[in-house]
Amino acid sequence: MNDWKTLPKTEIHLHIEGAAPPEFIRTLAKEKNVDLSGVFAADGSYRWADFAEFLCTYEAATSVLQSPEDYRRLTEAVLAESAANGVVYTELFLAADFCGGGDVAAWKEYLAAMIEGADNARAAHGIETRFISTCVRHFGPEEAVKIARLTAETAGPMLTGFGMGGEERHLSAADFAPAFAIAAEAGLGLTSHAGEICGAGSVRDTLDHLKVTRIGHGVRAIEDPALVDRLADENILLEVCPGSNIALSVFSDWPEHSIERLRRAGVPVCVSTDDPPYFHTTMTEEYAHLADTFAWGRADFNAINTAAMNAAFCDEDTRQRMLAKFR
Ligand code: ADE
Ligand code: ZN
Q1: Which domain range does residue 171 map to?
Q2: Is 18 in the pocket of ligand 1 (CB under 6 A)?
Q3: Count of domains for the chain
Q4: Which of 32, 68, 156, 237 could bridge across to 113 with cysteines, CB 3.0–4.6 Å?
Q5: Against a cut of 0.90, is the pTM above it?
Q6: pLDDT for 209-235, tens place per residue?
Q7: What is the CB-side half-sphere exposure of residue 197 using CA atoms within 13 A?
Q8: Quick check: CB of 70 below 6 Å from ligand 1?
């Protein structure tokens, strides 16, 4: 396990609120006198039983994050943990709906605080960060347009992408096309969750209507061989989070996971943790499981990290500097 801990890694699918350690959330809840009954299990971990309940717990826990300073502290805590697991380049998903309720002036303050946190983490641990602003699918298409406009207005060297998370069973990808068109027009990198809770059709709709270059998860594309070929042909990177998928019962266990079959079919894949404390995982544990299950070695991990950097939402200088670490 220790061996995998120090191997240089990229992680480009990590939700900042979902990466908050339970202790961090409990401490803030005490400071702010917020009642979080129902959020934690008896052992102190986050309590949820299925995807819908996971989203509820996630939003309840996030309610204690109430100021830019809370998010700066969280950014530094999350990036310290990433760096401790060997991550040298990361992309963090930020949901502006939770950072000032989608108000542009408030969002600017939250974003500045998170950039300050990322700058501090770079100075302390050498970790490089970019941010992806995400809309929340179950908050609906109008809210998504609002978040896309706000993201376009604040895009810059650190805020480089736009994406969508949330309840995949809510509406269809086409409903969110206007939001993604605004983000595309602003030159932002595009990614969206799909093929996690729903099947291959959801991935196909996302490619057709949202014009993304990456898919969050996408692992259920394996149910449709023609779609697998399309992902390979169009060089669409899947941000695969195997531990998350197993925790949420998308696959019953590691040997059943589609990541190896997708990779063998020529689909670019990389590995991330999604919401690590919710799924009781770390990047080191993901690597150890992949090594044990599929006999992946350093060359395989360097290949997936190279794929991630080739699809990363960053400037060319940073891309080349990071790619050199995986040669
Ligand atoms: N938001 C945080 N984690 C998520 C996941 N795994 N799927 C969809 N939305 C999310
Ligand atoms: Zn996710």
Answers
A1: 9-326
A2: yes
A3: 1
A4: 68
A5: yes
A6: 999 999 999 999 999 999 999 999 999
A7: 15
A8: no
